[in-house]
Amino acid sequence: MHVLITGGAGFIGSNLVAYHINKGDKVHVIDDLSTGRIENISLFLEHLNFKFDEVDILVWKELEKAVAWADRIYHLAAVVGVFRVLKEPISVLATNIAGCERLLRVVHSTDWNTKLIIASSSEVYGNRFEYELLSEDMELHISPGHNSRWNYSISKLADEAFALSYARQYNIDVTVVRFFNIIGPNQTGKYGMVVPRFVHQAVRAEDITIYGDGTQQRAFLDVRDAIIYLDLLSNNPLSRAEVINVGTAREITINQLAYLTKEFAQSSSNITYTSYEDAYGKDFDEIYHRKPNLEKLLRLTNHSPKWTLEETLTDLIQREQTKEL
Q1: Is the pLDDT of residue 200 over 60?
Q2: Number of structural domains found in the chain
Q3: Residue 191 belongs to some domain of the structure
Q4: N or C: which end of the chain has fewer CB within 10 A?
């Protein structure tokens, strides 16, 4: 199988590269390396079944050729991470929306029967104060535009609308996946991701810094389970023109996560707190609860996660400790 991955040098993309190369597939990655890292895919650069182009999806002239080659496309290219989203609000909207629409337009123009997976995010559910499972068919509530944090949500919602519109109007085989707090190898804390940041701090005996009061709840899914879900969804024709949550049901507070990371790393780190304003700037809107309804995902894949949070933390801590040797 021929697999094209946009944003393939990033966290999820690079794990998809490893997964498909190990299956014997041919993989083509395009990435502008604005957030992706060449180190994430360095093991594959000389592999006969791997090709990499450092390009901007918005202007790359060879996109049509790459799309026509691919049996499956994962569209992961986007401006991501809270720090970067807040710093580059215009780029978030322009890049995320225009890049997705251009890819859909090219898929349509090639008239090739490609399976397309579009990455969306649980951020599209907005800020919900009540405790409830987040379901794909529920109404979405995006906060007013005074805070640029929501530009990311808006961009992903626009991507979803484009994807489903192309599916209906042009019969493109596309599936939208809403990721919920995916963690694992190759993820960086540079742009605000909490698990790699905590692991980095714990291994180095630095203060483990919690933003806010730590009562926020999250459900973390290992990327190695996430990519199995993506593969199973790609192979299931019932996923066509569907929006599907990809996550796990187990929740944990950020306070619990910090203490668990410290324990597993056998770290002497202190656990400290900083305000949202100090961490992100004025008027930051936090999401305190984010738990997915997974009925549709389980019905379409019949897969249960293999990795527990404890196993993932142990693995990430061991990898971080190896870096320190």
Answers
A1: yes
A2: 1
A3: no
A4: C
- The two beta strands, 217-218 and 252-253, are antiparallel
The pair of structure tokens assigned to 153 is 């949500």
Question: Number of C-alpha atoms within 13 angstroms, CB side, residue 89?
Answer: 9
CA triple 151-129-254, angle to 5 deg: 80
- pTM of the entire predicted model: 0.93
> Quick one: average pLDDT of 300-316?
97
For the chain, the residue count is 325
The answer to whether residue 74 is domain-embedded is: yes
Secondary structure string (H, E, C) spanning the chain? CEEEEECCCCHHHHHHHHHHHHCCCEEEEEECCCCCCHHHHHHHCCCCCEEEEECCCCCCCCHHHHHHHCCEEEECCCCCCHHHHHHCHHHHHHHHHHHHHHHHHHHHHHCCCCEEEEEEEHHHHECCCCCCCECCCCCCECCCCCCCCHHHHHHHHHHHHHHHHHHHHHCCEEEEEEECCEECCCCCCCCCCHHHHHHHHHHCCCCEEEECCCCCEECCEEHHHHHHHHHHHHHCHHHCCCEEEECCCCCEEHHHHHHHHHHHCCCCCCEEEECHHHHHCCCCCCCCCCCECCHHHHHHHCCCCCCCHHHHHHHHHHHHHHHHC
Tokens of 63: 């996109």
Please check whether residue 322 lies inside any domain of the structure: no
Whether 82 maps to a domain, the answer reads yes
Q: What is the pLDDT of residues 68-87, one digit of tens each?
A: 999 999 999 886 666 566 67
Full domain range(s) for residue 45: 2-183+221-249+285-305
Q: In angstroms, rounded to a whole number, what is the distance separating the alpha carbons of residues 277 and 195?
A: 20
CA 74 to the chain's CA centroid: 11
Residue 217, amino acid: Q
- Angle value at C-alpha 65, between 64 and 70, nearest 5 degrees: 95
